[in-house]
Structure formats: C-alpha cells, structure tokens
Amino acid sequence: MTVPESTYRVQLRPEFSFSDAAGVAGYLRELGIGALYASPVLDAAPGSTHGYDVVDPTRARPELGGESARQELSTLLKELGLGFVVDIVPNHMSVEVPKANQWWWDVLKHGRDSAHASYFDIDWERGPLLLPVLGEDDAVSELTVDGDELAYYDHRFPIAPGTEGGTPQEVHERQHYRLIGWRRGNAELGYRRFFDITNLAAVRVEDPTVFAATHGEVLRWVADGDVTGLRVDHPDGLADPGGYFRRLRENAPNAWIVAEKILHPGEPLPQSWPVDGTTGYDALREIAGVFIDPAGEPGFTELATELGVKTGYHRVEAEARRLVTDRILVAEVRRIAALLRGIDQDAAREAVAETMIAFPVYRSYLPEGAAHWEAAIAGARQARPDLGAALDTLDAQVRAEPESELATRLQQTSGMVVAKGTEDTTFYRYTRFAALNEVGGNPDRFGLDVEEFHRLAAEREAGHPAAMTTLTTHDTKRSEDTRARMAVLAELPGEFADAVRRWTVRRAIAEPALNLLAWQTLMSTWPIEPARLRDYLDKAAKESKLRTSWTDHDETFEADVAAWPEDVMGDAELAADIEAFVARIEQPGYANSLGQKLVQLTAPGVPDVYQGTELWDFSLVDPDNRRPVDYAVRRELLTRIADGEQPAIDSSGAAKLLVVHKALRLRREHPGLFRGYRPLRAEGPAAEHVLAFTRSADLAIAVTRLPVGLDTAGGWRDTVLPLPDGVWTDVLTGREASSDAATLFGRYPVALLVRGDA
Q1: pLDDT of residue 137
Q2: Residues in domain Glycosyl hydrolase family 13 catalytic (predicted)?
Q3: Mean of all residue pLDDT scores within the chain
C-alpha cells in the first residue's frame, strides 16, 4: 500500500489547471510534501470552481487540460517521487446543465426506458420526473421549442422521440419530465439529491453496473500507478457505505483510501470499512481543542446570554434540524414515511422526522452500530411521547429488515438532516464561541485537556495510523490560523466581553447571534478586506435562517449586514479600539498556530496541508478559502529558510513555513522516527502550558499552549520538560535542546527534537 508521509491539497479549477499544479510540484517536493492531493479531477459542470459537480466520470476534465495534461502531471509527480491523491465523488452528479450530463439527458429523453434510468435514484412510481427550474409555477407559458429541444430561457431539455408538434406547453406535457417552479422542489422532488441541492442528483453506486461506469476511469489511473490514493467524498449519502468501500478496495487493493466520514466525539469508524481512516475532522477537533482554555466558558456563556444569543446548544440544534425536516428535506421525509407499513402517513412522517432529528451521530450502519439507532429512537420517544405507536412500528420494521429500502433511505437521509441542521444552520445560530463551530466539532464542549488528547492520539496510532489529519480543508468554517487566533479569546473572556459591549453600542448587527459572530470573526481575521467580510456575513446570515435565508430574503436586514464592515472600519475611533485589541492577541495567536501545526504534522496520522496554509492564512468558509495562492512569495521564503534563515514570528508567516518545512522534510526523509506514541509531561509551575510527546525513542515534540495565561502567571519560571537520556537537538533551530522550558522555547514556542545523530 502506498501511504504518503504527508499530502498537500490543491483546489483545481479552470484558473488553476493540471498544468498549474505541475508548476508547483517542484516547490511541494522542496517543502517536504509526500503527495499532491487534488480536488475532483473528472469532468464537471461548465466553469465549476470546485469540481464536486461531476457531469462525466469517464474522462479527465477538459477545463483542467484534459487527459493529456493529467498524464503529464502524473508523470512529473512520479519523477519527483510524489504520490497523487485524488478526490472522488460517488454520491451524486451535476444535472444543472442537462446537456452537459449525457446520462441525465438520456434519462430525460427516454424516461424509465433509458439505458441510464437505473443510474440515478429516481422514484418512477410518482409519475414524470419533476425538475424545479422555473421561476414561477405558471412559467410554462415561457417555454419554447427549438428543433428537438425544449427551452426555458437558456435552459435546454430534450424532447422524447414521437412527442414533437403542438404548442410548447403541449410538448412539455408529453415528456418524461415536468418543469416546475423552483420552490416546489423541497416538497415534491422525485429523485434523491445531495442535501437540498436540486441540481446534484444522487447516483446508485450500490449497483455494480453503476459503480463500474462511474469509477472505471479513476480505477484505470490507479491500476496504471498514476493515482496512489483516493479521498472519498460524503460516503454517508450512499445506500451501503461498507459495501461500497469493500468493492472499492477490491478494485484498488494498493491505494491509500480515506473516507470523508464525520465522527462524533467517541464514535468509532465502522470496523467493516476497509479504509485507512477518515479525512481528519476528528483530529482537527482534538488538536484545536487542546489549545482552547476551558476556563473561558462561563464568560462567553454570560456574554452570549446578555446579548440575546441562545446558549442551550442541544435545543438550538434540535430546532435547526426540525427546520430541515419540515421545510428543506420534505420530499425525502415523505418518501421514507411512505415505506412505513400500517401507520397513518402524517404520524409516519412525524416519526421519521423526529428520529432523524434525534440522531446522536450522522447516521447508523445497521446492523453495525445498532446503539446509535437505539439512541435515535429513544431520543424521539422522549421528545414526542405522543408518537409512541408510530415509533414502535418504525423501530420494529427497521430492526427486522435492516437492509430494506426503509432502513437504507432513513440512514442515508439522517446524515443530510444532521449535516444541514447542525453544520449549516446551528453553527451560525449558536455563536457563543465560534472557534468550536467546526465540521466534526462539538460546540458545547469547551476545549480538550492534555491527558484526553494523549489518549486519543495513542488510539489513532494503534487503530488508524494511516488516517489523514487536517487543520484546514475546503469545507472548514474557518482556516486554522483564524481558529488559532480566535482561541486566544478564550483566555481573555472578560476583556473580550467588555470590548464587544462597547463595540455593539457603537455599531451592532440587529440579530444577536450574527452580531456576536461578526465581532469574533473581525478579531480573528483583522485586517480583513471589507468585501471579504461582507460576503462572509451575508452567507452566515442566510445559513442561520433567522432573519433572512437563501430563499426568503429580508432585503433591509441584508443591506444593514452588508454595510456593517465598512461602517466599522470607517469609524476611526472604533477601528483604533479594535486594532489595539488585535495587537493584544496577535502574538499569542501566532503561538497557537505554530503549536497546533507542529502537533498535526508530527502526531499519528498522515498530515494534510491545505493550499497556502504553510504561511499564515486567515480565511473563512468557502468560497473565501478557495482564493488564489501566491506561490512566488512562498518559494522565495522557502529558499531563504532552506539556506538557514530562522525567521522572526511576524506577519510574514515565514516562521510557520519554517515549522512546516522542517517537520515535513524530517517526516519524509526519516519516516521511521514517526512510529509509536508516548506522552511527555512537563513538571513545574507552568507544566499545564506544555503539550509534549515522543513518537519513536529518538523523536520528541513539545509545544506551548494557553500562551496568555502563561505570560500572566510570570512565564516558565522553573518549569522543566524531562527528556529521555541523550543529547537532543531542535531541528527548527539546530541548537542543542535543554530540559529547561524557558531555554527550550527561547526562540520559538515549539520544539522538534531528535536524539543523537538520528
């Protein structure tokens, strides 16, 4: 098996193609990376900036340079000794531009007689396929016929053979599909989709024929040695994730395979999945958590309550999930409820919805992990005692037939309810302390203690040592450095609360949750361009669905939110106050960034570096985190560091590049050092401010945590970190290491130590 020592994620798009990736491959080799890790590379919707909207899985995307450019990139990576990991999307395909997806076009043209009708998860018993693309329900009057195609403005749809002639409306009525108003999609859709995105139609990869058709090209690349690893997107949406991974492994026995499985704290990866681990959100939660001070929780709870932000996390989460079942995934809930036998349909729908709302994890994998199903049923009973009979029937039917359509669809959809309700709604409503509001995160758990971190790291080394670890991805709500600076606020709850009170009086956003989120975001990204902050707050406001949403707009409120960044930054007195506060937290934020990065790069697992984050990167949620990366600056700094420069910890981010480069090079050139895991414990008055561990007997890592508290208490004083016998050298500085903490961390707040001539 080809397990990379590390990966570097690049976001491919028409403006950053296969050739552009090839152009930075040499830099990545010098940086110390083990494998280039690319966003989806199969043909996607025209102009796609992310690639998750695949339209043709049988070819490399022409807008990235096509097959020839892909081969050139693969050849270069082999020559450089780098692996090539690609992101694959088995759950869905884009149908936004029907003609771009020939399989979907054929289904629209021939209906259930299409050779590709079984490729998509369509409920043909409901009649013609409903396509929610019209502006209004009566907009069929705006249809036109153009040859053998039906047109709605610039949208084109096929006309089935033998249905030509008559008015456009008459032609429309003869097709295997019906164009309907976009608002009807959530309630009436007849095909499964990706979350609530109607232009991403679900694919039935559980069918061996469909699996072969959708995976054949990528598996050919694996067989040829061009691709060494696969990152699998959203497996929870599949009918049978375990069966899918077993089939994938059979066809790619030597590939490194990681699953984008979001694990709840304490939830294990299903044992039956033949994968190397997750894509690392569990590691992100643990690494970021150990740099957050739990003592800050009461102050943030008090501030949020004072401002009118709800602080009962589970109640907020349940309300958000119920919004998803009742308004967004109505069609999916109805389709599942119709499979429940012997129960009134209204009661069946409520029982199905309540069960999905109560899921403690994203989904169960019956019969494996039955405890999660039991917990969901128990939670539903507690919330709705009046649904006892319906829940009894649902529970009995699912347990008796765990491979039935009812059980399968309910498990597929529960992940959608949890993700949409929690990640995409609750995280924008429950804004008490936003650094915790991360994919795979646990916002009601304020930080992680050192001993628990050690336990979890040791478990990863024992169970999934080849799992990916991450701090930033294309899906994180904020980048690692944004989160690291925000973590400093947990050490200053009183000062931050006083500041927010002052600032809110001067320029508040008239929705409490967004107001508190805005100040935290401004602190952690300053100096951010007003346009970037405006776009982020607009998205946050709509995702929260409190005062406005993507579908039902409050234009006045949106205008006020849009004006907020310029108003705040244009107020000289207010801006000066903010800038002074940022100056207070900037250096501790850098220390957190360096600490969590070194831990991620050296702890058990395969560390991924998201594009550009080898320097400071204060990005927010997508699309902000897909902005172009300036590789010229990074190359120049890397050359200086390779020549021996030990940069200061300043706004250039060169100190972070030093840490990334030294750790990655050590990991790639001496992989034997990175085996095993044992805690190291500091002793003395500031011992709690050290996180340290060894991998092999000859490698030790030590980092500073909670730097504000450390400084307030008087620094390291007599704190020591007892090291195993021998002479230890800090790879970052080239100096002999000391067990005295003040000396050990004299140059940088982190240390990467090797023993002897190791």
Answers
A1: 63
A2: 11-384
A3: 96
